[in-house]
Write a structure and sequence with these properties.
The structure holds three protein chains of three kinds. Chain B is mainly α. Chain B has helices at 11-17, 24-61, 79-86, 88-119, 126-133, 141-151, 158-164, 179-204, 208-216, 221-232, 234-249, 253-259, 270-279, 284-309; strands at residues 64-66, 72-75. In chain C, the strands form three sheets. In chain C, strands 1, 2, 3, 4, 7 and 14 form a six-stranded mixed β-sheet that branches. In chain C, strands 8, 9, 10, 11, 12 and 13 form a six-stranded mixed β-sheet that branches. The interface between A and C is large, with 64 and 67 residues.
């Protein structure tokens, strides 16, 4: 009896691992194939049947990518820009979401809709007027020109508001009775509880900004200020598309984001497993 | 203090009608309003400067025909909008976008739910799998599109692997029948990471006691899932629904990199067709009208969701 | 108390904004070599950044250095190595002008950035734009035709390729200076030709011959699945334009828009229809690989020996040779024509891009722009550019330069391209269409081709519909530019 239970238990555990592994393989497949291509030599790109595993670690592909486009410099700029936007978004969204979740004020829903509406505005509607404005401010070729227009986010506010709403009223009431002010409550209680959501927002906003192409292209001219997606475009020569170099460049620029992701993931997980709100 | 009857009546009326000394509640309401405004102001100022003012400017442009440099040339009022409904392109884009939303949003949420459930298993090394499932957060749209572009190559991409198991000539991006699905797959892959993480985070906040008491009552895994997990996740589902739909409407990069709107306009989603109008055709006024139109579509959809769907959400 | 925290948060935000400003200030645009990865084969890049010229305060009696921006859309090796090298050579060759090349994304990106910067005054002095932007650039009235400088300096253009110059001549004036020039060719796998019993030294020349060859080259496996297609052509508007030209067809009326302003699209002529019928015929027979609009995918398939022939720009040759690296022998042939007679009566149109001088710039900048244009048109610079890119030199004598001769030894197949260029008579057809809505037109044609291949419309129907769309676009363009009287 016991043995049968044990076997069934083991089998279901194995089954679970199997499903997990299959899911992981499927999800990782695109990244794997990009990595695979980035390690191909020029001639291997034309091989048939197509090569599925790298025959060698060809770091020179990365080097070649870096000579065609100053990806190192661009990477730095992108990281700075994305970090600034991330910090800005965390601050503005936390403050705004707090108001929506904990302060009962007139026209709250209308303001909230207003914030949400910013997520519905297509970028084509704002990019040229913003460029003209930023240019007038003298912010072209600067980090503030790259970052400030994006420091507020409807998405972030929405995300945090949903999370804040799940914090029980009793906590807030107790705090109010204790004479705790809004900001104190926000800083000492709400934000620590909301770490997983904050972490998610941080990573998300960093990534969104990292992904930008048109805005940095418009707002910067100086090669020392340009960002990574422009670098990737620079790698693509229509007539001589070297896919291995492009993929090498692409993997290279994803390194900071992947690193951020891995590091924050541990923090997220710690937040996830430790932060269950009791009762 | 909370038992003051007066707080059942609309405050605005009271403030205007009664010139008498403001009661405690009213004082607090005005105080609340300004407090809230203080908290909202950083975001609000940025929005006004970089979102709303440009939006109004675009609205202005949409009432004009522009010269090829982009300067306003001729005032035409609502003519651009009327033309929209006369051009089959716009109607097609609207249709394709709605289909795209239908392809991607439910798929994303369902797959992410599955991954979140898997990621919630109490197994050793599960944190590694959680990381893998959410990895698409770290990958930018352009990167993913480039990766999938190669995968979708008619002969040397994944088609080669498929041919080994007897599946031949998947047309992926080349045929108008499959292009939208292929792009949807890329979009879904990109969105899964974020959705899974959010669902996982939400699942972690469901109190253990609920599950324990259900088990005592004799509930099995499926029951627990349907009657506890899903309702407790409803606010998260709502959030993801709104956000994913808005993201789907704004999908641009995969189209730009993989299909350029084709073949046969089957992937000419609204945001992309606006871009084309803007970029290739230089018709800024017309493009602006389309943007405004798109904005209203998304606005109405979101309002509808808040009005009809949010009431089903269970907040604690 | 609560305000204290709020103030703190706002300060933090302001601080980060100030920090970004400070960070910017310390990144003085000049010295970057340290942050560049230590790549020895890239002295150009570092030299570029370390050039002290703009910051050197010149002595009073010397002229001030005039700094100009050169906007281009070349990526890869060309934008990363060749163009900076040419800029450095120019800067080193004289002391009045200093050119800084700036990559501005694709041609469309650059054009849109130009539009935006015309409103802010941050325009470049010299800019590269695609061939199909020629009419638009002239009509925008933001350029100074290089003819003015040619006349002023009595610049000798007799050595420049007439076909190439003619493309960029608008209303009798040389509007821009050609820069990167190419024509399309047929590429084929010589090994596969032999295996199929075809003569690898005598490639097919006409539509029918191509179809014949494709039939022999298409291979199937036992189950009847096609494993190798005889020919592949990506759905690219440029190919259609070229095929139309070699068939003697006009893209638009009024001498392709060069005798007078174009008002109507004419590519739905019998010549145009014949092209699509040929294309569709091969497609339906299963002789053609379907790679949609992606040229690069067709190339990949060719390298992987999945298709035996393909059509693409002459500039593709170098990349093809490097990737194939002897796995099989690559052959090049003229772009196929409808029949043998067409070789005498018509020819290919040149494609690529040219350099424009933007009139928004102060006169001394325009002068420098002209100096730079002249410099890159010199034989040795042209030879360098040609060998780095695979584009044609615009000057015949550049072919004699040692670099070019060496290159031809390495890539003998390129001779086909040169011959094809010289084979083409210089008439309105080969000068190509001149319309302001070319990007739109190209996309419309591509949609038409898709419709035909998908069986949704016949060639005539698809082209008629496309012609209507393009004609409408041309009309609107002419009105919006105030061109119609």
């Amino acid at each position: 009896m016991k043995k049968m239970d044990f076997d069934r238990h083991l089998l279901s555990k194995l089954g679970q691992y199997l499903i997990l592994i299959i899911a992981a393989i499927i999800i990782l497949f695109p990244i794997w194939s990009a990595f695979n291509i980035s390690m191909m030599s020029d001639t291997e790109m034309g091989a048939y049947p197509p090569i599925q595993f790298p025959t060698g670690i060809r770091l020179e592909n990365v080097k070649r990518a870096l000579t065609q486009a100053p990806l190192g410099r661009y990477l730095f700029n992108s990281v700075v820009q994305s970090t600034l936007v991330m910090l800005g978004q965390l601050i503005t969204s936390s403050l705004a979401a707090y108001a929506f979740a904990f302060i009962d004020f007139k026209w709250r829903n209308i303001f909230f809709l207003l914030f949400l509406s910013t997520m519905m505005i297509p970028w084509e509607a704002t990019i040229i007027p913003n460029y003209l404005f930023v240019q007038k401010l003298g912010w072209t070729d600067t980090f503030q020109g790259l970052a400030v227009p994006f420091m507020a986010t409807g998405f972030g506010t929405f995300l945090l508001r949903q999370f804040f709403l799940k914090i029980p009223h009793e906590l807030k009431d107790a705090a109010t009775i204790d004479g705790c002010s809004h900001s104190r409550f926000l800083l000492t209680i709400v934000l620590p509880l909301a770490r997983p959501a904050l972490g998610t927002l941080a990573v998300y906003s960093f990534l969104q900004t990292y992904n930008q192409y048109l805005w940095p292209l418009l707002v910067t001219n100086n090669p020392s200020m340009r960002t990574v997606q422009i670098g990737i475009a620079l790698l693509q020569d229509e007539e001589r598309l070297m896919i291995n170099i492009i993929m090498a460049g692409v993997i290279f620029i994803q390194i900071p984001t992947l690193t951020l992701f891995v590091v924050s993931n541990r923090q997220l997980i710690r937040g996830l497993t430790a932060g269950a709100v009791k009762g | 203090m909370d038992n003051n009857l007066s707080h059942n009546q609309p405050l605005s009326g009271r403030v205007i009608k009664q010139k008498a000394r403001l009661s405690g509640v009213q004082k607090r309401s005005i105080k609340n309003f300004f407090q809230a405004l203080l908290f909202l102001s950083p975001a609000l100022i940025l929005f006004i400067l970089f979102v709303f003012i440009p939006l109004f400017r675009s609205f202005e442009i949409s009432a004009y025909i522009t010269d090829p440099i982009g300067r306003l040339a001729k005032f035409v009022g609502f003519q651009n909008y009327r033309r929209l409904f006369e051009t089959p392109d716009f109607i097609n884009s609207l249709k394709r976008t709605l289909i795209f939303v239908l392809y991607t949003v439910p798929t994303t949420i369902l797959i992410s739910l599955g991954l979140a459930v898997l990621g919630d298993l109490r197994l050793k090394g599960i944190s590694f799998f959680r990381m893998v499932f959410s990895v698409s957060i770290a990958i930018s749209g352009a990167t993913a599109s480039l990766m999938f572009l190669y995968i979708y190559h008619p002969t040397v991409g994944v088609n080669y692997l498929l041919s080994l198991v007897g599946v031949h000539n998947m047309t992926w991006l080349v045929s108008h029948k499959t292009a939208l699905m292929s792009v949807s797959l890329t979009a879904v892959w990109l969105q899964i990471g974020l959705n899974t993480v959010i669902l996982l985070a939400a699942m972690q906040t469901i109190p253990e006691e609920l599950y324990e008491s259900a088990m005592i009552d004799g509930a099995n895994g499926w029951n627990k899932f349907v009657h506890i997990t899903l309702p407790m996740l409803s606010s998260t589902f709502f959030f993801l629904l709104v956000v994913d739909i808005l993201a789907a409407f704004q999908t641009f990069t995969p189209i730009h990199i993989m299909t350029h709107g084709g073949p046969l306009q089957s992937t000419n989603l609204l945001v992309y067709s606006i871009y084309r109008e803007f970029y290739f055709n230089g018709k800024f006024g017309f493009a602006a009208a389309q943007s405004i139109m798109l904005f209203f579509v998304m606005l109405i959809l979101t309002i509808l969701q808040f009005v009809f769907v949010e009431r089903k959400v269970y907040y604690e | 108390m609560k305000n204290r925290v709020f103030i703190l948060l706002s300060l933090l935000m302001i601080f980060s904004m100030v920090l970004s400003a400070c960070v910017t200030a310390t990144q003085a645009p000049v010295e970057e070599p340290e942050t560049e990865p230590p790549v020895v084969e890239e002295p150009e890049e570092e030299e570029e950044e370390a050039e002290p010229m703009p910051t050197l305060a010149p002595p009073a009696e010397e002229e001030e250095v005039v700094k100009i921006d050169f906007w281009h859309s070349m990526g890869g090796d060309l934008g990363g190595i060749a163009i900076p090298e040419m800029a450095n050579n120019f800067n080193a060759s004289q002391t009045q002008c200093y050119v800084e090349p700036i990559y501005q994304g694709s041609y469309d990106d650059a054009l849109n950035k130009l539009r935006a910067s015309l409103q802010t005054g941050e325009t470049p002095a010299v800019m590269q734009l695609y061939d199909i932007g020629t009419r638009l650039m002239v009509d925008l009235q933001v350029i100074t035709p290089v003819q003015e400088f040619i006349d002023r300096d009595s610049y000798d253009v007799s050595d420049l390729e007439p076909n190439v110059l003619a493309y960029y001549t608008v209303e009798g004036q040389q509007a821009s200076m050609p820069f990167n020039t190419s024509t399309p060719m047929l590429y084929y796998n010589k090994d596969m030709f032999e295996a199929a019993g075809l003569d690898p030294e005598n490639p097919p020349r006409t539509f029918d011959e191509i179809a014949e060859a494709a039939r022999l080259l298409t291979l199937k496996d036992d189950a009847g699945n096609v494993t190798v297609t005889g020919i592949s052509m990506s759905i690219y508007g440029w190919f259609f334009e070229q095929l139309l030209a070699v068939s003697g067809g006009y893209y638009v009326n009024n001498g392709n828009g060069r005798d007078a302003l174009a008002t109507e699209a004419t590519f739905n002529s019998p010549e145009g229809v014949a092209i699509l019928e040929w294309w569709k015929g091969m497609y339906d027979e299963g002789l053609m690989g379907d790679y949609g609009r992606v040229n690069a995918d067709v190339r990949t398939a060719f390298y992987a020996e999945q298709t035996a022939m393909f059509v693409d720009s002459t500039a593709v040759l170098r990349g093809a040779m490097d990737t194939v690296a002897g796995k099989f022998e690559i052959g090049t042939a003229y772009l196929p024509r409808p029949n043998e007679e067409a070789f005498d009566t018509s020819g290919t149109i040149i494609g690529g891009g040219s350099l424009w001088i933007i009139s928004d710039s102060p006169p001394e900048q325009q002068d420098c722009a002209w100096e730079f244009i002249k410099f890159q048109a010199s034989p040795d610079q042209q030879a360098y550019w040609h060998t780095m890119s695979g584009y044609f030199p615009i000057r015949e004598t550049a072919y004699e330069e040692p670099l070019a001769v060496e290159w031809r030894d390495k890539y003998p197949q390129f001779a086909t391209a040169v011959n094809q260029l010289h084979l083409a008579p210089n008439n309105r057809v080969t000068q190509g269409g001149l319309i302001g809505v070319f990007p739109t037109a190209r996309q419309t044609i591509e949609s038409a081709i898709e419709e035909v291949l998908a069986g949704v419309a016949t060639p005539q129907e698809a082209l008629d519909k496309a012609a209507l769309t393009v004609t409408q676009a041309i009309e609107e363009y002419n009105i919006s530019m105030g061109l119609t009287e």
